[in-house]
Structures are given as structure tokens and as C-alpha cells.
Design brief:
The protein has 202 residues and is mainly beta. 13% of the residues lie in helices and 39% in strands.
Length: 202
């Protein structure tokens, strides 16, 4: 029997409840995820109660996962659930932030859990819903409580580059200098990218 184990709480930042909940046989999901710990084979094995569509046009839900490294060298994952077809307009966003000390296996498991939590809403009227079982595992005595990583940079990431060149001869000389800088911030509700470049030649 497929089991969905809820061990930590994940709060959606934005959710839209369906007005007319459609009835479907099997939930089809198109996964759009490229980057660290986007192990598609692992997700398919662990979330076996959905149909993983190869074509977005065949899916009920487009699951878009984007990520950005935090100031503490962890990863901030944003999971956008985009309803398609009968679920048109049923969209929401979940987020997960990993710790720099988490292993790849731990990050994959935590990301899989977050993915599954977000898909439950869409699967609740499918034929698989009666076979889903939600369990809660209370925190045991002495077990560390999972806390969200404190990011002193508030999700901002900065990059600075500098390049120079000097040439000289008896009759002439020249030099050039160029620089670039960028700032990025990706949150659940807003994505910001600032890119500056400059060059001077003499």
C-alpha cells in the first residue's frame, strides 16, 4: 500500500482552492526540474501514485522546481504547482530550504516529501485517493527539532568580476579595464535579477 509519511510541516506561501474540483482517474504530473538533487528516477520511485507525464500537454499539473544557493551554502527550492486542463487556475507554491550540512540523500528525501505534500490536493479526487494514507510521526524525546536555516543575506546572492589589460611601447601605450556585478534574489513570491557591466579603454 502506498504511504505518504508527513514528518515535518511545510506551509504553502500561496494557494488557490479549486471552485469546482474535477474528478480524474490518475493524476498526471509533468516535472520541470534541472539542477542539484533533481533526481527524476528517485522521485518516480518514491511518488509512485501519480503518472509522470513526458509531455506537458498530457499532464494535469506542471511542477516547476527552481533553486538558488543561500548565503549559508544551503539550497532554497521553490516548487510551483501549475494546474492544467481540468485544474486550470488551481496553482500554488511550496518552498524548502536545505542546510549546508545536509547530505544529497537527505536533501532528496526532504524535497520528495515537499513535492508529495503539494500533489495531495490535486490527487484527492482521483482514483488513487482512497489508497493514500497520511501518517504523522511525533518528535521523539531527544530528537533535534528541524528549524529553518537563518540566512543573513535574506536570499540575496552577489557576484563581482574585474578584468584589466595594459600594453606599452616607446611611442604609445594603452590600457583597458572592465567590470561586472550582479545581484539575484529568489523568494516564493518574487524573482529579482540585477546585472551591471562597464568597460573603459584609453
Amino acid at each position: 500500500m502506498p504511504i505518504l509519511l508527513i514528518a515535518v510541516a511545510v506551509v504553502p506561501s500561496a494557494a488557490q482552492e479549486p471552485t469546482d474540483t474535477p474528478t480524474i482517474q490518475t493524476l498526471s504530473v509533468f516535472l520541470d526540474c534541472n539542477g542539484p538533487n533533481c533526481d527524476r528516477d528517485h522521485f518516480r520511485r518514491e511518488i509512485a501514485w501519480v503518472n509522470w507525464a513526458r509531455d506537458r500537454n498530457d499532464a494535469d499539473v506542471h511542477l516547476l522546481i527552481t533553486m538558488q544557493q543561500t548565503g549559508g551554502n544551503g539550497w532554497h527550492y521553490t516548487l510551483d504547482y501549475i494546474g492544467l486542463g481540468a485544474f486550470e487556475g488551481v496553482n500554488k507554491t511550496l518552498a524548502h530550504t536545505s542546510d549546508a550540512n545536509d547530505t544529497d540523500a537527505e536533501v532528496r528525501e526532504q524535497l520528495t516529501l515537499t513535492m508529495a505534500l503539494g500533489l495531495v490536493q490535486y490527487a484527492e479526487t482521483s482514483s488513487v485517493a482512497p489508497r493514500l494514507q497520511i501518517l504523522y510521526r511525533p518528535v521523539q524525546a531527544g530528537e533535534p527539532v528541524v528549524q529553518e536555516e537563518h540566512d543573513p543575506w535574506n536570499l540575496w546572492m552577489f557576484r563581482v568580476g574585474l578584468n584589466g589589460n595594459i600594453e606599452g611601447e616607446a611611442q604609445q601605450s594603452s590600457y583597458s579595464i572592465s567590470g561586472s556585478g550582479s545581484a539575484d534574489r529568489v523568494s516564493d513570491n518574487l524573482k529579482i535579477n540585477i546585472d551591471l557591466r562597464g568597460q573603459y579603454e584609453h
